[in-house]
Design brief:
One of its GO terms (cellular component) is plasma membrane. The chain is an alpha+beta fold and about 160 residues long. Helix content is about 45%, strand content about 20%.
Length: about 160
């Protein structure tokens, strides 16, 4: 018997032989890959040369970096909404709505309308007509600290 068979029970010796065979297969595959790597590089060399992308050079940050950051976002569009009022009604009532139906809202007549940006209250105002279109004249702007307080509450 060989030394390997003497050290391990028969089942473990068989497992070692399988591992040795697998290691030999891997070694052969790696040798084949390294011998054929020359042809792979020839194929790669035949591919068209890619030029790296060029990017505009950004100028160094000015003395007021906060102003620069603000300028980057000034042209981002946001959704501005004027809310007339709200109400909660059951789905069965919604399904019964038809042309001419009236839905009562929680806002009182003459009360300022809420102005929201992306769903967050930023101001209140009164409805006006401008060139045959509705508009809103702002009467009260929510302070930044109040906006932060409302955001933290989730309202």
């Amino acid at each position: 018997m060989s030394d390997t068979a003497a050290e391990f029970p028969p089942d473990e010796a068989k497992g070692n032989e399988e591992q040795d065979a697998m290691a030999a297969e891997w070694e052969a595959a790696l040798a084949q890959q390294s011998s054929s790597s020359g042809t792979a590089s020839e194929v790669t060399d035949a591919a068209p040369q890619m030029t790296p992308a060029t990017f505009a050079n950004f100028s160094p940050a000015p003395a007021n970096p906060a102003g620069n950051d603000l300028n980057m976002i000034l042209d981002i569009p946001v959704q501005l909404t004027v809310e007339l009022g709200r109400t909660r009604i059951p789905i069965k009532n919604i399904l019964q709505l038809a042309q001419g139906s009236v839905v009562e809202l929680d806002a009182m007549a003459g009360e300022p309308m809420d102005v929201l940006v992306n769903g967050f209250l930023i101001a209140q105002g009164e409805v006006v007509v401008v060139n045959d279109k509705f508009g809103i004249r702002l009467t009260d702007i929510v302070t930044p600290s109040e906006r932060m307080r409302r955001l933290s509450k989730g309202n």
